[in-house]
Amino acid sequence: MSVIESKLNYANPESMLNTGLTDKEAKHKLQTHGPNILAERKKISPLKILFEQFTDLMVIILMVSTVISGFMGEMTEAITIIAIVVINAIMGFVQEFKTEKTMEALKSLAAPNAKVIRNEQLVSIPAEEIVPGDILVIEAGDRIAADAAVLESSGLQVDESLLTGESVPVEKSPLKSSKAIVDPYDKKSSVYMGTVITGGRGKAIVYATGMKTEMGHIADMIQNIEDEETPLQKRLAHLGRFIAVGCLLICAIVSVTGVIRGEKLFNMLLSGISLAVAAVPEGLPAIVTISLALGVQRMLKRNALIRKLPAVETLGCASIICSDKTGTLTENKMTVRKIYAAGYQLSVTGNGYNVEGSFLVDNRASDPLKVDGIKLALEIGAFCNNSVITRPASESSAIGRIKSIFSKQETLKISGDPTEIALTIAAAKAGITQSDLNGTYQRIDELPFDSDRKCMSIVCKNDKGEIYVFTKGAPDMIIDKCSRIMSARGIIKLDELTKRSITKINDGMATDALRVIGLAYRKLETGNYSSRTKNVESDLIFVGLMGLIDPPRKEAVEAVQKCRFAGIKPVMITGDHKLTATAIARELNIFCDGDNVLTGAEMDKMSEAQLEAIAPSVSVYARVSPKHKLQIVKVLKRLGHIVAMTGDGVNDAPAVKEADIGVSMGITGTDVTKEASSMVLLDDNFATIVAAVEEGRVIYNNIRKFIRYMLACNLGEVLTMFLGMLMWLPIPLLPIQILWVNLVTDGLPAIALGLDPAENDIMMRKPRGSKDTIFSHGLLRLIVSRGIFIGLSTLGVFVSILYFVNNVELARTGAFMTLVMTQLIHVFECKSETRNIFEIPLTNNIPLILAVLCSLAMILGVVYIPVFQVIFETVPLGLNEWLLILGFSLLGPVLSSLLGKGRRRQ
Ligand code: ATP
User: Fold this and answer.
1) Residue 324 annotated among the catalytic residues of the structure
2) What is 653-684 written as a DSSP string?
3) Mutate to test the pocket of ligand 1, among 419, 478, 481, 645 (most ligand atoms within 8 A of CB)
4) CATH says 231-298+692-898 is which class?
5) CATH assignment of 308-330+553-684, among 3.30.830.10, 3.40.50.970, 1.10.540.10, 3.40.50.1000
6) pTM above 0.90, yes or no
7) How far apart are CA 524 and CA 257, in angstroms?
8) I need a surface site. Which of 59, 169, 493, 630 has the fewest CB within 10 A?
9) Which residue among 324, 550, 671, 684 is the active-site one?
10) pLDDT band at 399 (very low <50, low <70, confident <90, very high)
């Protein structure tokens, strides 16, 4: 049986716990076992995309009638029309194929990573590179990358509902060490691909990957970007149908009128259908999709990974960005600056992760190890800690091993939670190392940190068999768990007065923008411990406080400013202390005078109505738990805001999911939160959210630009023919000419408009209303008025040449050229809705200029190259006609800029 075969026979899996596989072994195994992926979803084949280009009803009718007209003698025309249709289809194919490829590339980027031990180092690798024998390092929030046997665990709980349907998390315990064989049927010790760790942490050895896993039996399980259509795409599809019906009606009228006037039935049919093919903006959905996809790529370059396409649109409407503090608004590079223990207040010098630094009392250097309370505080900080500090491989020589790992010249490899790293470094400055502590105490259990409890404990045993609990966490939580204090006079009762003075010292540190950690311990009286021993985090002895600096990110200050100009309110949401949060929010300009700060405890006492009343003035939410985050999102949404909310921990997922734009952290975020989010910040940076909002606005604006362009142009084409018929004129344009105009103007220039760079004032405007349609704010008026103008200009040239020269072919060529020129000029006008063509920077979009030049060449070729003159029934234009064409083509832009000026002056 395959599962049995896939079990691994390791003589001693535990021996691999800290070493893991080497790269060479992993590479070899990857070759034998294949990548750790489930069977891929079917991709759309390029052939299918190409075929779909010809399935449009209008295109089919056009092709059939062209073939018939070919048999009736118009062979050259028929071949040209078919050629145009094929070129059109190829352009459509290229657009859609590129879109499909871009989306695929983005999906592979969203593929999950996993933490493993390789070459004795903790590394994060793409989950598909996991091989049997890899040691997975797992913790709350992780989605497990392969089937594995647990070798080490503390409080490890897994949600296996995906496999079992059972929503209660299952506890996992390590494989009995006596067992040499990893047994996949030992469910208590197995974790399975795709399931989620809901609590605790651990290490597990992989025994099955890819299709050999339990999950391998379940199809389409891969968590990917969803192929959701955006609301705009849905609305446009609807609009497309509406426009199509309108166009068909007009085309029918044009054909019937022509026939009534005595034109040949078949010719008029062809004209009507060509007009329909030209006028129906069938390329619109593809261009919308490609500009969304290209925008998503641009966002990626700015470190924002979009997981759900609709978020791109919503970003432009964001009116509030709720952001975590630590790591997103701050650098998350912490350093212990102040220590309070045994009645002493010490300052700690040194920067970042450098172990050089000293301890000062009243500005004088002092040895922290001389005072028991201070030494113990540093020890608890370093030992109740999961950060890992190692020498780089190159320095692991024999001599290097003898030297202390904290020798001052060494560059250290550091991994783990920055708060914990800072505590380890502070202890190292005093000469206390984790390896020394490991010699004294043996860790027997851990109660991991979580953002609800806001503290962490470890249980450990010394050589005398005594069992201790070491706890660190938010001071308010720690003080509540303490009954005694380690003072300069020894261990005494912790009375209310002392509690108040500790709180005062804590507040003092917090006001200086320090993140404060409280430290405590106790000896377990019983002398034995099992994971069922209750309330170890109670009756503790308070030891001290440590204040950590975490400077605000420089780019966050600028990003906050940008938000304010853009009418977006930045809000800080943090688990940290109210005073720390306020101090940092003030530095970042998130908190201004008159704003309110609300804590989780205060929120708990408020009714929903009270919360709704105060929320508009709150810029900082402090000491909140994930459940408060959800409450905040709901309240803000009820108040009509479009809310972006960040999150990292597993418990943040509901709030992130509920937000209009759920944002997760790429570096520190858990898989669960990433999956719930619509956007991942690859650099965990607040400024990236603002950059994404900016891109979101640019994308939406560009979509408006080419919708404006395409619809105005198509309306112009329809009106030329329609009005021409109503005015009882000869047909202004032949079917083949209409199709050529459509090919020349609709394709490249429209796509190039989608690449237009951001307008200068894009982040100076208020957010778009979420109920606004794509045509809001006067776009429909612009489209209709310009459509009418294009039609009238074309007819103006047609009628003038007819009147003065009385040559239908010349008049048609003039109209043909005018229709193209008006559109190629209009494409530049579409770059801005507020400025006229003389104020718009025309040269900042090179693809657009190239597209226009290309279109010009195509139209001039048809008018001046003799072979094409025969096919397209054109004649060369003289100077007089050109003056007429340019005059009529420029009339629209000149008039609208004059009218625009007049309007703006009012
Ligand atoms: P955010 O990232 O949402 O801005 P935060 O990271 O500051 O918030 P939490 O991680 O929930 O918030 O931390 C809340 C409090 O818990 C901190 O103020 C600190 O006192 C304490 N704390 C943080 N990390 C640890 C840890 N690893 N061990 C023990 N206590 C911690």
Assistant:
1) yes
2) HHHHHHSSEEEEETTT--HHHHHH-SEEETT-
3) 419
4) mainly alpha
5) 3.40.50.1000
6) no
7) 99
8) 493
9) 324
10) very low
